[in-house]
Amino acid sequence: MSSQDVQRPICIIGLGLIGGSLLRDLAGYNHHVFGYNHSTSAARTAVKQGFDVNDDLPAVLNRAEVEEALIVIAVPMTAVGSVLDAIQEYAPSCSITDVVSVKTPVHQQVCDRGMEGRYVGGHPMAGTSKSGWDHSQTGLFRHAAWGITYDYAADYEARGEKVPRKWIETFTDVVRMTQMVHAEAVPVRVANHDAAVARISHLPHIFAETLATVGDNGGILAQSLAAGSFKDATRVAGTRPNLVRQMCETNAPALVEALDEALELLRGAREKLAAPEPSIAELADAGYRARTRIEARSGARKESVSPVKISSRPVLRLHPGGPKWVAQLRQTESLGGRIEIF
Amino acid sequence: MSSQDVQRPICIIGLGLIGGSLLRDLAGYNHHVFGYNHSTSAARTAVKQGFDVNDDLPAVLNRAEVEEALIVIAVPMTAVGSVLDAIQEYAPSCSITDVVSVKTPVHQQVCDRGMEGRYVGGHPMAGTSKSGWDHSQTGLFRHAAWGITYDYAADYEARGEKVPRKWIETFTDVVRMTQMVHAEAVPVRVANHDAAVARISHLPHIFAETLATVGDNGGILAQSLAAGSFKDATRVAGTRPNLVRQMCETNAPALVEALDEALELLRGAREKLAAPEPSIAELADAGYRARTRIEARSGARKESVSPVKISSRPVLRLHPGGPKWVAQLRQTESLGGRIEIF
């Protein structure tokens, strides 16, 4: 264990695609990690594969409390409340993070229970259209952005008060955990996170479902003619509907805003296409410029000729709790930057 | 040259991504193929690379007439009319096909000039977001659907008349040409083609432009958080705007219909998301079912364990001009099937 690693065990509650992949990476790193899966058969499979996994939630949380572990909540949104209740009961002093894809409702449930002093929200921007322990894999988080929330610290700063030590330690360990799995920690406040993912993750799901449906309505001839671009565009429609529902429905306000913006563009394009001289010049130009900017910004991550992958995200080396550190987080957030802790 | 190959030279007018890739494949097959490019420098580049290419359109068409070549029109839609005029003048008896992505306006221009007796429309469902000779490549059409129109024959059949020999020969050679580049010939009438590609090609372009714009509006933080799924979903927005415009604007009536269908789904999802109990159950379920069907139908093409790629499109072995052959084309079209000619 290096001095830059998390200096306590990590306990993962929920071993689906994300929780399972995190467990695999941390175990591969030889970090002390254990976990809970509600599925007895999946837990058995993981044990047979040599992982320290159990299907008894109170026992796992008791152990987390005794070993002073950092708890990672990796269950679907609908189960977060009951897991928080169990943590209150069995692991009342443990630090907590989560990997749920929408941050407002998790943050709300944490605040409802007065647990915000030991909670730092997280969201790894990684995944596949598959789910469950059987699809978990090593290396899933490499180079991925991992959003880390800091509203609690921002509130203290706004009041001119010092952020409590316990929260700073939790924040530090969450960032260090993401570093151990080679992700890039992007500081982001809850509302900004949810507004951003509505645009770049949830709206694409809505679009993919819509495209798949309209394509399918074209019948077997349309599908026979469909090429790779159609399959790419509808790929995420292959995600289990209940996962899509959880993401989109729990982020409804931000998603409605992004969707309204999209609907306005589409209605405008529709009117111009239905005109006597059809034109989509405006949308085609705007989309091309936007795509070119997106490509340029992510270029260094994907297409660098350097043998070492270089991140295009500006980096801030942070000393949590140091002078103006919360202001530095704000600045990094505004640049879409990442933080490193040494 | 095998007896199943085209038994005459092929002359390609326009050597961009599609025309250039076709020239490369046919030349690689040792077929007699030559072409025209309006760009003198691109034509010179092709000549240096050993291809039989010229930038003098009358000369190239004269040669096609003398050698009784099959002419492939591979220019943008806006240039089709002037190429047809030049063919009328310099190659008045040659058979003609094209590779333009929308069939109604090409068909109309052909009919306006009374050239339909020697024209068979085509559209290879292959491409990349790049364009021009420099991006043309071998193997682009392998396993791709290549729509081939037969409205002329269907009209003769509807009148109870025999399809003229010249047209049958043209049709046969166009199908054979697609076989030579390992594409799969899918018979399709003009209106059905345009309705299908509106759904599976042009609407995805509109959606990608819209998503890229809405994502870009989220600023640098949203883009920093964007993962692979967003880049996949916006990939085709990287296509040159004038190419997107030509496809979408020349297929405006069919595209408006597909877009209206999509807008209705999106508006419905928006209302249900904005409700007190947000739900996108309906869209998520429909999209998932649609995507699963799409995947199942293309499964054998992409994920077959067989070392020989097997097409999932049903195949009809056709004898053009034989008994009920036009009825067989109709039936194959209704199944999204492919035809082979021996």
Automatic annotation (TrEMBL), chains A, B:
Q: Does the keyword Zinc apply?
A: no
Sorted alphabetically, the Gene Ontology BP terms of this entry are: tyrosine biosynthetic process
Q: Which UniProt keywords apply?
A: Oxidoreductase
Which SUPFAM superfamilies does the annotation name? Answer: 6-phosphogluconate dehydrogenase C-terminal domain-like (SSF48179), NAD(P)-binding Rossmann-fold domains (SSF51735)
Q: Give a single Pfam family match.
A: PDH_C
Q: Report the superkingdom from the record.
A: Bacteria
InterPro entries found in the cross-reference section: 6-PGluconate_DH-like_C_sf (IPR008927), NAD(P)-bd_dom_sf (IPR036291), PDH_C (IPR046825), PDH_N (IPR046826), Preph/Arog_dehydrog (IPR050812), Prephen_DH (IPR003099)
User: EC top class, in one word?
Assistant: oxidoreductase
State a single Gene Ontology molecular function: prephenate dehydrogenase (NADP+) activity
Enzyme Commission number(s): 1.3.1.12
Sequence ranges assigned to domain Prephenate/arogenate dehydrogenase in this UniProt record: 8-305
NCBIfam families linked to this entry: PRK06545.1-6
- Indicate the family of this protein: Belongs to the prephenate/arogenate dehydrogenase family.
This protein is called what?
Prephenate dehydrogenase
Native source organism of the sequence: Corynebacterium macginleyi
